[in-house]
Structure formats: structure tokens, C-alpha cells
């Protein structure tokens, strides 16, 4: 399917499905309606102001609503009579319209309701409410990052790694929620379409000072793509919602076996109909990365063992920025453009020692010096239009273009010695990798609220993706670099998928709400190279239902039941049969036989006051497990590649916040996961129970000083056929709020006990497979952070916007 055809189809869809709806909606607004707009003295709209419709004869209340994001309001289906309108908002004096008369099927526009500021009231109001560290909502768990002292100065990846129910595997580039792999990353509600390995690096480079909150969305609505079996992690960056010019700055310095530095600045300017906003952040982390590998297998009747140890030093530097403009064309229509991007520059240099044994005796040793550059660049452009037909219905159109480019050259130099330590020969290799990736996305969404009980949403989306991978391997022979034709290739992957959805929220009663959704997706996927055009050529369609029912028994007790179906499609690197050398005896490659994974999940969430109990069960077929080991006895190498596995998971999680007194609060999260994995050529089963603990204790030492002690522990768990050993972290932090608007200083220390080492074992002698892997990604790190806000902080004005690319950025890997 070509881009022009998709564009033509999209225009046709809009004409057929949306124009009648727009005409009907406009007609409905014109019947028995009272309209107007609430503004301040400077003519700026006042968002979410109280608007009351009163009987003019005695001022008795008829209806009450809130003004929309643009300050507008609409009373519909009003009986004939004499009325007046009252408007009010915190920090303003009340305003009244003149009395008016409305006839049957008539309409009246009361014009502008101008609110004047009440400065004495504003100055007397002191906001003391503080959001809890964790908030459970109907479909997600919200982590309010800014309320965690030990999060200051750390990366987004560090914060995620210590979050309840989240498991990070930095080596294979995967993130799991409640034991389930296949998580899609969202930034401000926009899906991140980069490879998982690049997403890990981006999150490692993202300063926690940029983050307002993290949402763990385990029951995604039908509006978003069905990609990601475990759901979504939405990272909400800080944004200013004030009039005038305002913003924030933050800077961090630290050390963790290498220097750590980060800085971020955000600005927002709102004047009249234009809102300009943006932020820019930079981080740099330098640290050692010790790695140990061991493998053992039988070949030609001999027992062969390989031992590998590396002394690696790595540097990650990351720039991340965005700038956006919203233009309020009218009271009902907003146009916007958002440009975002990042530059992630990773370099490493390593010295390796290799020992190869034959029948427990030294056969060969090797000294290696390798270096790598892994440079990811990205830019994305979003064009957005939102039109509100009334307070209860709106249309949103998004057009997105997203471009990535990866440059990853690697040089290898190995010197080999015999069993007596005598030099035998040198080997020089070099690999190159250029990968440009592009996405075109178009999405149309419409929502309509019928009364106060029923919300209907539906929409269409089309995505066209193009991946290209130019991989080269060269060997130095007699002073000249010679291309290895067996390992050099250019791969192209073209993929497009079209989706339509319908979703509804229905308030059955005061205490009972239902959410129903159905999404249809059709996918075309083709992978080929210069010699073979159709290595992979797949076409498939799926229906994805989402059902959620919640009931509040009383103000302290609530229950939510949910079911959803998700998919994980094989990504570019999963499928492409490339070669990447970890060392001389271990290589990484793709698997062109991979099938899409389908996961069905049932969940029950019960809340009692602030306490939460969550139970879920997932049945996943053809799950995609990354870096699964096999032994190639002919080449005497360990081959790591993705494999399809089947697994079942049952989890139970308890969240318990405890307020001991006014200066001491505690937050505990305990999760248990039962996991059964079916994998390997013999379809053998492995079952295991693992536990995840997460705890935070916060103490207010003085009026402006607070102290936090936090920790987490993840017990043994399976990752495919690997059994990963337990790991954990203990962290402390102290925060000092300076007088006036002087900001805050935060001193933190993470991984104090150096217990975050990751160790994987695959012990299957019956399959001729014994291997283990040990790496320390996290150092003990101390950091000092200063942050402050500046500018006008009196008036709110913020447009909640979503782009059409909420769902594609996890599809590249």
C-alpha cells in the first residue's frame, strides 16, 4: 500500500464518516442553547470556571457546568423561561450576566463573562495538599516523581527501575510490568517508536527533573494501538499551565565511579490566543561497566568452556528538546504544531580477557581491545487540530512525521595465544551499521458526550513505516580491509497498518461505571534484502477488545474488573538476520521465523481507602523473548537471538500507604508473580514464583527539610529460558527548600549497598547448553540537584492535547 493511496483513503474516510456527524452535532447545538465565554480582565479565557444557570426571578439554581479549556460554555435543552448566568473561579470575583428570556428551540449568547481578580483572596490562599507518591486509577498506577526525594538527580530509567511492579533488563533492552514483557513507552501520551535498546538509552539520558509523573497503564483504551502486551508506560514531562511567561530550571552534579551531570530548562509563554512552550535538557554519565560471560558445551566429544571478562568504560551524552505552539483560532478551534527530538551519543572502550578450555585444560587465551559508537538521532513533527462543536463533543486531527537515524560502528582487535602463553596471531575486524527509520501517521478522533452518563469515542488511524539497515563487516588482511560478503547485507522493511476503533464510557449509576472498546488493526509487513525480496511477507488482521467495570461500594471501598487483548509484532532487529559480535565466541542475530505475540489479560483491582489490592492473569502465546542462547557446536559459538515462547503469568500486588503522624509517612508495595514459561525445541516448561518489594519512608525533619529512605528488591525470575538472580537497591535523600522563591537543594545517594548487579543463568546440560552472564549497570552514585520555578504563577491555562502518534515508537527495535 503506497502513501498516496493511504492519503486518498483517509480523505474518503473523513468525508464518509465525519461530515454527517459534524452537521448533526452543529444542528444539535443550535437547539434550546445558552452559550458564552468566561474571560479575565486581560481577555484571556478562564479554564474550568464555575458557570451557573439561575432563574432570574429568585436566583434558584437550574444547572451548573464548568467552562471548557478555551473558556466557552454551553447549556443545552433549556426550557423556555427567564434566566441569568453566574460565573466564578478561585482568585476572581463573581460575575453575572443581564437577565434574558429564552423561547422554545431558541438560543441566546450572553457574550463574555468578565471575571476581575480578587487579589486579597488569592494572597490568602495557601495550597497545602500534596499528591501521594502512588495513585491508583481505573486503568493505571500513577507515580508522582516530583514527590520522591531520592528520584532527584537520577535518570528516568533509574526511577522506573525502582517503581512498583516494573522490571528493567538493560542488557537485552526490555521492560516488564507485573512480570509481563512487551511494554510500549509513551512521552506525554505520544508513543515512542524507537528500538527498545535505543529507548533504554534515551531513558538513561533523561533527567528525572524533567518528569512530572509516570503512568503505568495496564488496561490501555481502544483509542491507542494494541501494541505492547503489558501495556504502556507514559512519562509525563513537566509543563507550565500559567499565563504570562514562566518556567523552571534544574541542574545536577554527581559521581558514581565516574562523573554525572544533568541540566534542564523549560519555558512557557501565554499571551492572548498564542501559547508557546518548550524545554531542553542535557545529561552526561560516565561509568565503568564490568561484564563477565561463561559458556560450556560439548563439541566432537570434547568439553569446551569459554570465560570472558571485560573492563569497559562507557560515556552517554543526551540532548532532548521540544518546542510547540498552540493558536486559539476561535473559541472552538485550536491549531498546534509540536517539534521534538533528541540526540543520544554513546561511546565505549573495553579491554577483554578471554580464556578457552578444552576438557578443563587451557587451550587458547586472547586479549581484545574493542570500541563502539552508538549514535541515535531523532526528530518528530506533529500538526494538530482540535475543534469543539460544544462542551460535549470534539474532533481531533493529527498528522505526524517521525524520523530516526542510527550510526553504530564497532572495531575489534584480538591477539591470540596458545596454551603456553605464546603469541599466535592478531585479528582485526570492523563492523558498520547505518539505520534510517521513518514513520508517517494520520489519525482522526471524534468524541461525543451524551448527557452526564455516556461518552462515545471513535476514530481511524493509518501508519506507514520504512526501515533500512546497511550492515557491513570487514576484516584486515595483508594491510587492506576486505569485506566479509557472508555477513554484509542491506535489509529493507516496509510496514503499514490501518486501524479503527470505537470506545464508550457509561455511568450506569452514581457508583458504577463501565468502559467498553473494540479496536481493529490490519497489518502488512515485508522484509527483504538486495538478493531476496521477500524474506518475510506477512498480512494479518486482529480484533482487540477492552472491557472495564468499576463499582464504588461506599466512599472507602471500590472494585474494578477488566479484560484486554494485546499484540506484539516482531520488530526490525528481531527479524533481520544480521550479525553483531559481543566477543569472539558470542554473537547476536535476528530470527526471521518469529511470529506476532498475542496476550489476553484479566485483572481485578480492589481499593480500601488508600490501600490497593491488584490481581491479574495473562495467557501469552508466541511471546517474543530477546537474546535467547543456543550453542552452535560447528562454529563453537554462543548464538543469541529472539525466540517465540509461550507463558502464563499470575500476579498479586498490594500497595499500602501509611501516615504514621504528620512528620512520618510510609509507602509499601509488595508484588508476587507466578510464571510458567514454555520454550525450546523440546517445549519444556519452567515454573517459578518471584517477589518484588518496593518501600519508601519520608520524614519531615523541619519546616523546610525532609528526608527519604527508599529501597526495592526483585527476587529470581525467568526471562525466556534464562533464570535471572535477585537484585535490589537502597537509596537515601535529603531535600532543603530555600526561603521565598529560592528553589530547592536535594542531596541523594542511590544503590548504597551495590546490590543492583544483574546475573542470568541458563543451565540445561541435557540440551548441551550451559551459560551465565554477569553485568553491573548501576554504580553507587551521589548527586546534588538544584531546581526552581520562575515567572507568573497566578492563572491557569492549559490545553490537554494528544497526538496521532501515541502508539508507534516501540515498533522499530
Describe the structure.
The chain has 813 residues and is mainly beta. The protein folds into two domains: 31-124, Immunoglobulins (Immunoglobulin-like, Sandwich), CATH 2.60.40; 244-791, Beta Barrel (Maltoporin, Chain A). It is built from five helices and 46 strands. β36 and β37 form a beta hairpin. The chain is elongated and about 105 Å long.
* Class computed from helices, strands and strand pairing: mainly beta
User: In CATH, what is the class of the largest domain?
Assistant: Mainly Beta
Domain tally:
2
CATH topology of the largest domain: Maltoporin, Chain A
Quaternary structure type:
single chain
In DSSP terms, counting alpha (H) and pi (I) runs of 4 or more, how many helices? 5
Uncertain runs: 1-30, 119-129, 794-800, 809-813
Fraction of residues in helix: under 10%
Q: Terminal Cα separation, in Å?
A: 22 Å
Radius of gyration: 29 Å
Share in β-strands: over 45%
Shape: elongated
The CATH superfamily of the largest domain bears the name TonB-dependent receptor, beta-barrel domain
Q: Main β-sheet, in a few words?
A: 30 strands, mixed
The averaged pLDDT comes out at 81
CATH architecture of the largest domain: Beta Barrel
Question: How many DSSP E strands?
Answer: 46
Amino acid at each position: 500500500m503506497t502513501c498516496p493511496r493511504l492519503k486518498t483513503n483517509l480523505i474518503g474516510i473523513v468525508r464518509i464518516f465525519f461530515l454527517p456527524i459534524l452537521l448533526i452535532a452543529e444542528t444539535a447545538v443550535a437547539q434550546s442553547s445558552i452559550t458564552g465565554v468566561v474571560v479575565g480582565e486581560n481577555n484571556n479565557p478562564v479554564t474550568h470556571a464555575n458557570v451557573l444557570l439561575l432563574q432570574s426571578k429568585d436566583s434558584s439554581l437550574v444547572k451548573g457546568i464548568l467552562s471548557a479549556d478555551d473558556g466557552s460554555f454551553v447549556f443545552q435543552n433549556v426550557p423556555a423561561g427567564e434566566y441569568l448566568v453566574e460565573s466564578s473561579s478561585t482568585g476572581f470575583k463573581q460575575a453575572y450576566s443581564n437577565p434574558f428570556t429564552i423561547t422554545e428551540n431558541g438560543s441566546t449568547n450572553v457574550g463574555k463573562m468578565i471575571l476581575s481578580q480578587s487579589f486579597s483572596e488569592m494572597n490568602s490562599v495557601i495550597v497545602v495538599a500534596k499528591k501521594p507518591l502512588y495513585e491508583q486509577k481505573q486503568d493505571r498506577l500513577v507515580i508522582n516523581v516530583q514527590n520522591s526525594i531520592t528520584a532527584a538527580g537520577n535518570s528516568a530509567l533509574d526511577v522506573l527501575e525502582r517503581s512498583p511492579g516494573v522490571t528493567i533488563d538493560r542488557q537485552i533492552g526490555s521492560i516488564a510490568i507485573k512480570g509481563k514483557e512487551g511494554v510500549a513507552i509513551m512521552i506525554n501520551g505520544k508513543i515512542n517508536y524507537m528500538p527498545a535498546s535505543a529507548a533504554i538509552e534515551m531513558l538513561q539520558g533523561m533527567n528525572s527533573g524533567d518528569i512530572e509523573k509516570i503512568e503505568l497503564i495496564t488496561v490501555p483504551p481502544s483509542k491507542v494501538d494494541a501494541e505492547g502486551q503489558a501495556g504502556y508506560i507514559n512519562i509525563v514531562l513537566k509543563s507550565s499551565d500559567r499565563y504570562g511567561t514562566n518556567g523552571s530550571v534544574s541542574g545536577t552534579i554527581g559521581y558514581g565511579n565516574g562523573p554525572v551531570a544533568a541540566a534542564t530548562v523549560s519555558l512557557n509563554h501565554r499571551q492572548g490566543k498564542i501559547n508557546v512552550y518548550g524545554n531542553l535538557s542535557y545529561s552526561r554519565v560516565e561509568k565503568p561497566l564490568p561484564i563477565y560471560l561463561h559458556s560450556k558445551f560439548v563439541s566432537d566429544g570434547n568439553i569446551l568452556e569459554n570465560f570472558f571478562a571485560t573492563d569497559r568504560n562507557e560515556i552517554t551524552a543526551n540532548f532532548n528538546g521540544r518546542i510547540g505552539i498552540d493558536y486559539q483560532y476561535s473559541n472552538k478551534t485550536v491549531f498546534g504544531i509540536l517539534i521534538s527530538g533528541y540526540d543520544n551519543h554513546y561511546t565505549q572502550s573495553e579491554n577483554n580477557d578471554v580464556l578457552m578450555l578444552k576438557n578443563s585444560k587451557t587451550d587458547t587465551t586472547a586479549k581484545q581491545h574493542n570500541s563502539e559508537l552508538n549514535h541515535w538521532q531523532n526528530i518528530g513533527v506533529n500538526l494538530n487540530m482540535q475543534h469543539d462543536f460544544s462542551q460535549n463533543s470534539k474532533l481531533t486531527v493529527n498528522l505526524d512525521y517521525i524520523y530516526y537515524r542510527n550510526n553504530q560502528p564497532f572495531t575489534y582487535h584480538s591477539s591470540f595465544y596458545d596454551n603456553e602463553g605464546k603469541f599466535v596471531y592478531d585479528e582485526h575486524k570492523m563492523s558498520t551499521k547505518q539505520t534510517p527509520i521513518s514513520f508517517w501517521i494520520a489519525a482522526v478522533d471524534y468524541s461525543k458526550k451524551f448527557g452526564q452518563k455516556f461518552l462515545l469515542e471513535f476514530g481511524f488511524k493509518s501508519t506507514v513505516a520504512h526501515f533500512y539497515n546497511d550492515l557491513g563487516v570487514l576484516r584486515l588482511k595483508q594491510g587492506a580491509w576486505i569485506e566479509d560478503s557472508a555477513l554484509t547485507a542491506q535489509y529493507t522493511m516496509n510496514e503499514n497498518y490501518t486501524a479503527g476503533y470505537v470506545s464508550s464510557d457509561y455511568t450506569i449509576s452514581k457508583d458504577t461505571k463501565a468502559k467498553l472498546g473494540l479496536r481493529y488493526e490490519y497489518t502488512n509487513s515485508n522484509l527483504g534484502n538486495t538478493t531476496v525480496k521477500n524474506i518475510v511477507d506477512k498480512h494479518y488482521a486482529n480484533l482487540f477488545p477492552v472491557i472495564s467495570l468499576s463499582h464504588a461500594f461506599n466512599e472507602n471501598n471500590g472494585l474494578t474488573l477488566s479484560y484486554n487483548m494485546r499484540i506484539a509484532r516482531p520488530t526490525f532487529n528481531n527479524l533481520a538476520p544480521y550479525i553483531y559480535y559481543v566477543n569472539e565466541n558470542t554473537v547476536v542475530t535476528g530470527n526471521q521465523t518469529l511470529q506476532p505475540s498475542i496476550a489476553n489479560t484479566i485483572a481485578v483491582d480492589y481499593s480500601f481507602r488508600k490501600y490497593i489490592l491488584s490481581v491479574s492473569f495473562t495467557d501469552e502465546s508466541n511471546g517474543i523473548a530477546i537474546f535467547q542462547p543456543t550453542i552452535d557446536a560447528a562454529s563453537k559459538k554462543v548464538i543469541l537471538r529472539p525466540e517465540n515462547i509461550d507463558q502464563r503469568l499470575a500476579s498479586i500486588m498490594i500497595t499500602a500507604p501509611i501516615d504514621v503522624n504528620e512528620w512520618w509517612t510510609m509507602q509499601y508495595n509488595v508484588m508476587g508473580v507466578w510464571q510458567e514459561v514454555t520454550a525450546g525445541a523440546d517445549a519444556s516448561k519452567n515454573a517459578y514464583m518471584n517477589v518484588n518489594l518496593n518501600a519508601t519512608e519520608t520524614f519531615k525533619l523541619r519546616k523546610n527539610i525532609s528526608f527519604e529512605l527508599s529501597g526495592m528488591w526483585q527476587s529470581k525470575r525467568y526471562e525466556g529460558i534464562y533464570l535471572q538472580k535477585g537484585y535490589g537497591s537502597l537509596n537515601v535523600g535529603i531535600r532543603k527548600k530555600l526561603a521565598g522563591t529560592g528553589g530547592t537543594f536535594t542531596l541523594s545517594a542511590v544503590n548504597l549497598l551495590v546490590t543492583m548487579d544483574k546475573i542470568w543463568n541458563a543451565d540445561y546440560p541435557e540440551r548441551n547448553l550451559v551459560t551465565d552472564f554477569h553485568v553491573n549497570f548501576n554504580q553507587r552514585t551521589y548527586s546534588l540537584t538544584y531546581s526552581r520555578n520562575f515567572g507568573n504563577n497566578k492563572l491557569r491555562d492549559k490545553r490537554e492535547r494528544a497526538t496521532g502518534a501515541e502508539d508507534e515508537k516501540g515498533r522499530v527495535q
